[in-house]
Amino acid sequence: MLFGGRSGEHEVSRNSAASIIANLGDAYAVTEVLIGRDGQWHVDRKPVNFGRALDVLAAQDVVFPALHGPYGEDGTVQALLEWLGVPYVGNGVLASAAGMDKAVTKTLLAADGLRVAGGVTLRAGDHLEPDDQGRLGLPVFVKPARAGSSLGVSKVTAWWQLPEALALARMFDPGKVLVEPAVIGREVDVAVLEHPDGRVEAGPPLEITVTGAGFFDYDAKYAGGARFQIPAKLHPSTTAALQDAAIRAFQALGCRGLIRVDFFLPDDGEPVLNEVNTFPGFTSASQYPQIWQRAGISYPELLDILIAGAVRTAGTSGRSAVPGAARR
């Protein structure tokens, strides 16, 4: 179990890992590898140097990278595991890197014909032009392009608020910030799961209702500020459209194993894809495990599926893997 990391989602990663380990049960022998906030590696709670950490990772049957955000969910660790030749759960290097960058994600998905949220990408030193302000209108959301858990995201309802919102977003991604018009509509998530036989399935849509006055920010996600409705109360045709779009996004990004796709559902009924999460939260309160539990797949069964898929993927890609070796 690889978790922690140097991103702002370090604590979320630790919580995800704790939930995963608790639900693996006695069928698995687990080695815990923690990356500290300072980049220090630990194996079973003992500090080790980087070389020793690589040896431990390389010796595993399967690595479960329960990492969120930069330095973990962005292809960095995935490239390391590919180099070591060890099977691992979840998305590969390209899908992880593309999925982490919201601007790149939207470009790829729009090229595949999916409807995505509009907006302007500002790189370091860029400013929002008056013409862009007129085109975007208010309110807008300002967000770092490469961060998760809504860290650094602000809602701007007056243009004088923009500089402060940009400064906050650039704390989490100095190189690239998105300014997006607010999409008025219901917020719905769809989980996608790849089974070990290669079958890709979308779960029942989950609708998010924020209980406070704000939006689905970090506090709403992790401090009980939102309610989930699973399945969302939608017309069957709308449910089918959301699930189809989620699977198309999975395929367009070249994903494997899992992804969560977040949509807005405006009054016109056509889903607007907001963003994707190539390793969504895995705490007991997280959307992804809850969706599959509602679909009849328990948390332990979900983990079995993902681990078995990692072993299968390693075998078909030529990496060293022993079928069934994930289990004791």
Automatic annotation (TrEMBL):
Residue intervals of the ATP-grasp domain: 106-308
Reactions the enzyme catalyzes: 2 D-alanine + ATP = D-alanyl-D-alanine + ADP + phosphate + H(+)
InterPro entries: ATP-grasp, ATP_grasp_subdomain_1, D-Ala_lig_Van_CS, D_ala_D_ala, Dala_Dala_lig_C, Dala_Dala_lig_N, PreATP-grasp_dom_sf
E.C. designation(s): 6.3.2.4
Enzyme class: ligase
Primary residence: cytoplasm
Gene Ontology molecular function: ligase activity
Task performed by this protein: Cell wall formation.
Name of the protein: D-alanine--D-alanine ligase
Organism whose genome encodes this protein: Asanoa iriomotensis
